[in-house]
Design goal:
Layout: H1 10-17, E1 25-28, H2 36-47, E2 51-55, E3 57-58, E4 62-63, H3 71-82, E5 88-89, E6 96-101, E7 104-111, E8 119-120, E9 125-128, E10 131-134, H4 139-150, E11 158-159, H5 172-182, H6 193-199, E12 203-205, E13 212-215, H7 216-222, H8 225-231, E14 237-241, E15 251-255, H9 259-273, E16 278-281, E17 284-287, H10 288-302, E18 312-316, E19 320-326, E20 333-334, H11 347-355, H12 364-377, E21 383-386, E22 389-395, H13 398-403, H14 412-423, H15 429-436, H16 440-454, E23 457-459, E24 464-466
């Protein structure tokens, strides 16, 4: 949750452009506008492993730049097309970003994989090493695609006997109002209830079994409480406030309702038991506490593994805000701001929340927590740890911030590097790069931290570490 997602550096862009196009990188010229084949690539990336689309670049990775006068319109058209159900189905919420590179402006977008089969202009594209393939008329490839999708995400489990009578359709008025606040001309405003649910990917057909109906994402987002309990009996979020009674709790909230209302209940619980701090953001006096709460609450609702009965937790203590949720990890260890590859754990739910403004594009939560936590806690940093249980720890004040100072401890990778140094005092930069699959610059940054904390110094003359 390496310069990825919404985080891009010149070094990362240079790395992407020095390699040929491959299964997760695509170059598009698009100097004076976004071409239709860009959306085909969005579709194919969504249906495979995800990847980067870089515009203003010719084949072979040669940057040519984008006409700066057209960038605003290109961004607007891109977002509108992704939200046009006639173009992309289900509709997508992605962020197209600018970067200045070698005196030119490039546009880039990170496309995460989706849990549903994505269509572009009612055609289905898949990705291979050679580019985007239209597999709409290929039954075997379609079967493989649907099988791959259905075996990956719990949110896609279909419940054929769930009907609209089992859903809180009264919540759709609130959904539309939230979507309108996010985007005044949001396409959901013009859709019927049934078409909105289909556009959001909440109703689908499994082409491997022939089963069709509302999926678990629909039940979790809009289901009546008894329906959620039947379809997902392990779903609960346990919110605890512990300051006086540390053995148990001073206040507790068990949330078992739909995700739309669960979000509001949990935000209210955090607001009730934490102090607020306001900060000028874009010249608007903004609650930093609410910005942080939005990210941590969004995370435990959007990115948890709903196939597990492990209860998600929100724990508020005197100095800390902590969350836990069961996770299907793609990596293990601390997640740093500039060293993560975002991926969606529940893409349908994440996309729904993004459309109503309760989360942003995939990967933005980590960026925002690193941005706002130091403001709120007078210099503290968040800790995000990915394992079977995904944990977030937020310091709430200056005292807690001191405990999270990077100067007091090594990260898991830095500790692992230091352990290797202790075992092999002739350890080289190249060996560390290969062992941890990191860049030379990252190695030297870790070395500086290790030196500051442990006193270990590498003697270049003798090619040996001195501890």
């Amino acid at each position: 949750m390496e310069g990825a997602g919404l985080y891009m550096t010149i070094e990362k862009m240079r790395e992407l452009l020095t390699k040929d196009e491959k299964i997760t990188v695509e170059y598009k010229a698009c100097k004076n506008g976004i071409h239709d084949d860009v959306y085909e690539t969005v579709c194919s990336f969504s249906n495979r492993y995800g990847g980067y689309i870089i515009m203003g670049v010719e084949d072979g990775g040669k940057p040519i730049g984008i006409n700066k006068k057209l960038i605003k319109d290109m961004k607007k058209n891109f977002v509108n097309q992704l939200n046009n159900p006639d173009k992309m189905s289900p509709t997508l919420y992605l962020s197209i970003e600018e970067i200045e590179y070698e005196g030119m402006t490039l546009l880039w977008v990170f496309v995460p994989p989706t849990s549903t089969v994505e269509k572009c202009a009612n055609r289905i594209y898949d990705r291979n090493e050679d580019g985007d393939m239209d597999i709409t008329d290929s039954p075997i490839q379609l079967q493989n695609l649907y099988n791959r999708k259905s075996n990956t995400y719990a949110e896609r489990k279909i419940f054929p006997y769930v009907t609209t009578a089992d859903l809180r359709l009264d919540l759709l008025e609130k959904v539309r109002n939230l979507a309108k606040s996010k985007k005044p001309d949001h396409p959901w405003l013009e859709l019927s209830d049934e078409d909105l649910l289909k556009s959001a990917g909440l109703w689908e057909k499994d082409f491997s079994s022939g089963m069709e109906g509302y999926n678990l994402a629909a039940v979790l987002l809009l289901g009546k409480d008894e329906v959620i309990n039947s379809c997902c009996p392990g779903y609960v979020t346990d919110a605890l406030y512990r300051v006086e009674n540390m053995d148990r709790y001073d206040d507790r909230l068990l949330v078992t309702t739909n995700l739309i209302e669960a979000y509001d209940l949990l935000m209210e619980f955090v607001a009730k038991h934490t102090s607020d701090k306001f900060h000028l953001i874009n010249n608007v006096n903004t609650s930093v506490r609410d910005l942080i709460a939005r990210e941590v609450i969004g995370n435990i609702l959007v990115h948890r593994d709903y196939s597990s009965a492990y209860p998600a937790k929100v724990i508020i203590e005197k100095d800390w805000l902590k969350t836990e949720n069961w996770c299907i990890p793609r990596r293990h260890g601390n997640i740093m701001q500039d060293e993560f590859q975002p991926y969606p754990k529940n893409p349908i739910i994440q996309r729904f929340f993004a459309n109503i403004g309760r989360t942003d594009t995939i990967g933005s939560g980590v960026i925002n927590l690193y941005k706002y936590t130091p403001i709120f806690s007078d210099g503290g940093k968040p800790e995000l740890f990915e394992d079977d249980v995904f944990k977030i720890t937020i310091p709430l004040n200056k005292e807690a911030a001191k405990e999270t100072s990077d100067q007091k401890r090594l990260s898991d990778r830095e500790q692992a590097i230091y352990n290797l140094i202790c075992e092999n005092k002739h350890l080289t930069v190249e060996q560390v790069m290969a062992e941890f699959d990191i860049s030379r610059a990252t190695v030297f940054r870790d070395y500086a931290k290790i030196k500051k904390i442990t006193g270990a110094v590498y003697d270049k003359n003798e090619s040996v570490w001195k501890l």
